[in-house]
Amino acid sequence: MQRTTIDMLLGRLEPAPHGEGAATALLDAELQRCWQRVPGLRALCVSTADGRALAERIDGGIDARRIAAMANSFLTLGETLAGEMELSQADYATVCTARGNLVLFRVHAGKPLTLLAMAGPDTLLAALLVGARECAARLGAALAAPAPPATVQP
Question: Which of 89, 105, 114, 148 has its CA 20 to 30 A from that of 142?
Answer without folding.
Answer: 89
